[in-house]
């Protein structure tokens, strides 16, 4: 094409950090289908293997935004990186984004009450611990009464659980399903409770929001488009899902892709619950207000905005 | 030792290693450590893809090793022959070397982003220190007689470095390269698991995340093989560069 | 001309002080041959190092041709007691080192060294490394290196000690000839009384450690043809022997 | 260099480092790299807790370094003096060394638990290879003359090892310990961040996860300080063990 | 008694072959003193190494007291051309090394070494390291080490080359005395014709490289008092000189 048409302006390019898990699948579908280009966007999806490295990259300005959670967002702000949530991508309902607390194979644990004093593998000061605390409370157990062991990386937590070195561990899907398939017992499951504990959010650096508002808006539209593509024809993206969401071979025939809701803003009370937990954990001196964490202007007003 | 015997010895010990691995895998019977067979199958299954990752990894290791040698060797020689430089440099090295490289990750990312640059910087920083320490210690040990004798021929500082200090330290520098090559590959693994989707480190971690231990160990095998080949190349360099030691 | 005034030298190792030379005063006119002799450990090597600028006097000063010696001079050649050959250079490269350091062309090096090595009986050994030579061969390489330089001052520390009697006498004659031709100021350390008397126009006898001047003999006939068989020669040998015995 | 000067030099270069850090922190202006002031405040704030973690880390590093030395040094000396052993061992080392040990940590932890065992095993495995390679290369370089001379006194194999081979390699073994100490601390960090709630690695990562960069860098400072102190101890060992090199 | 039958030796370096000795046949009765003399590089040191069992003949065989020499014997002491002192041991420890290796008690070592070191003029240097000695002092330490052992066979490679004339003559006499007392079979390499004739009951003259036997002179009066001043002494000196010149 001519130089004028091929030159994608700086404002239209976005760098997005994400961990290749099922939460982010619509982005990969959009990439595969060329939806970004069609929308006149230049989006680079940068894969990370740990939330820690992803957040460091955002902090250093190497990426414009990332798919994260509310705890990470608040901590980034606390650490001096101005970021804001622009939309929820997963976890609009409790059924989305499954986390489960599992007991190791062969352990004599069948009810939450038996977890008292046992070792529970989590990732400290993250959404994982928040979910763990929430689940334990739901199960009627004081989170302080279990022995938390920090195992930040999920695959390692899985291996230690299966190897019997942890009595229990909190795992997201598909690892939770895999552990269950290998003999671990699900004690608590966040899709089976009434509270909505885990939300996946799309966040951007504030300067990116300021400079690239149209691009981010388009991105959200593309995301919505990809989500509906998946909903309409899940089997067409099966292979891509197995690959991009890193579904273990044992589960490839049984594990189903989750539902993806269209972009929307997180609920006030969910954000507040996270803030209260963080203050109680002394991760924050004072809770952030909803407006400090969320930028309400980017989600398409036609969307499911509550 | 004749060349033929060497090859036999190499093959023998590789077989021995596989044997140990097999026994260990059987013994502990944990999916995290699969039998060699599974790894070899993984190798066959993923070969073309693995080769692509291998290419990136080799590139990163070799470039950072070369850069580290280029900078650390002269500095080490200098510090080894100059007490004042050393007592300024040593505490810096001793303080910086143990600093966990994650601490440097933000700096690396700000300066170089998340591409090859940052990965190679992290590798570079680790082995720079190793080569610096070894070279400095080697330069310190050079007998004064040798230096005196060449100085008495009227050699200036520069000639002394080129004619005496550098060749005297060459064997130790090669040893340092051996040690650093291993470290470089370890750090490579770590830096490739941070971000991006290329390199053997990524491949291995990807296998771990998918709980596909066959793929994971195929990656580990490839990494080990890459190490072995690079080591053999280093031996070749030594043979060529140090003819007086044959 | 070499002028040594009030020179003392003390080694310091780890706090312990060893006085090696005390209050040495000497004048060696340009083109003259001076021989240092004295009991083992009396500081001959130390004095040579001082003359070469490889050590700095603890007290006193040394001037060569009027200029104070503080570091190795280009026009001074030295043969060290332990030869000072570089293990990583072949015989040829070792012998050519001084020339190479002076920026001499390949061809010029060849012109100078080939006859020199032949005269020293080293032809055919050019490609060997020092570790592959006998003691005497190493010593001759060191001699070749020093003589190749066409210096104005030549310092030698027991340069013929590892050579057989005949080679030795031949080289003594060569040395006399070269000194005459090139008007070379020579300082030679030896333990051999006959050698001292044959070569030294000035014979400096040192006391046992710490070395002081015991006597300085004038021996003007040194190096003249048939001096070895003359009456004076034998008389001077006896005098040196007596001085050493006292 | 006198002891006093050394201390001044050390302090000077530490100040210089802090200066660089400060400038860098200002320059890149990223919360991930706070100013030194914040780290020092964090140090004061967390001291008693840090001391507890420090204790665990020191214990893990020192024990694994000691174990690695104890096993790798004899094996390295043996391989260095025995071609057959070496050509069996070398390929194993060259294959195993590049295997990313961190990838094996989960397996090690499944075997040995989340406590000290697995962490120390991985540290041990990394530095074992480094020490083995350096020691072997050092043992190879021992001049035959020295061995011959002691053999001629009737020394058996064992005596040769104790009297010649070990002391000849000691300086290189100390260099290897220096390099390995740094590697050990790096691996320590990694292994402490994989699982468990103790050690400086845990503390640093905890700070990172809390976005409490003051605490994080207080941990890093403590780790660097631990490294420096262990390095100074190594220097002390060298001073005591190698009196002939003073 | 030493019996050398048809011994040849060829050095092999990197494929290049250097013939050092060819077809040597010798018989040295027990208690006799044999002197090897010949041009530099003719293989004297090589022959001594062969006698010591430090090298293995390419052809032929060597027997001492009827037993074939294949490795160093406990009852053979050797003084190497480059002294073979261990840089990391003090003078005392170096001198005591042979005794220590034979499991001699501390006290016994002291009884033997103290007078020996005093006789060699080394008193007061016990705590020094070899690097802190003069050339002649190093050589005397090597002599002390060899003589301390009370061997039945003594092999010496130019043992007095770095010593002054008077010390040298004193030691020659000491050697004669010790040989007589202990009925020591002695093989000595020297370049000094007078020394050869004074010490050698059997004088072996070798040809230039590759060394073959040129002549074996019987010299029964060697070592007798005043032999130095006798007519026979001078006649034998001339004969050796002629043999060397041919
Ligand atoms: N590095 C050193 N440290 C301490 N003392 C030393 C050192 N080098 C030499 N000496 C001492 O200084 C004195 C003079 O040594 P030097 O080497 O000059 O003697 P020399 O006359 O050359 O003896 P030789 O004839 O044996 O070679 C000796 O007594 C020796 O022990
Ligand atoms: N390692 C080696 N490799 C090859 N050639 C060697 C080696 N060592 C010695 N030679 C050669 O073997 C010959 C005999 O050496 P040797 O050291 O026995 O001589 P030597 O009679 O002791 O001489 P010198 O009187 O000079 O000490 C020499 O020509 C020497 O060049
Ligand atoms: Mg000397
Ligand atoms: Mg010899």
UniProtKB/TrEMBL annotation, chains B, D:
The keyword Transmembrane helix applies. Residues 54-234 form the ABC transmembrane type-1 domain. It is a multi-pass membrane protein. GO terms for biological process: transmembrane transport. Pfam families: BPD_transp_1. It comes from Neomoorella thermoacetica. One of its GO terms (cellular component) is plasma membrane. This is Aliphatic sulfonates transport permease protein SsuC.
Automatic annotation (TrEMBL), chains C, E:
PROSITE patterns: ABC_TRANSPORTER_1, ABC_TRANSPORTER_2, PROKAR_LIPOPROTEIN. This is Taurine import ATP-binding protein TauB. The keyword DNA repair does not apply. Keywords: ATP-binding, Hydrolase, Nucleotide-binding, Transport. It is an enzyme of class 3 (hydrolase). Residues 2-233 form the ABC transporter domain. The keyword Transmembrane does not apply.
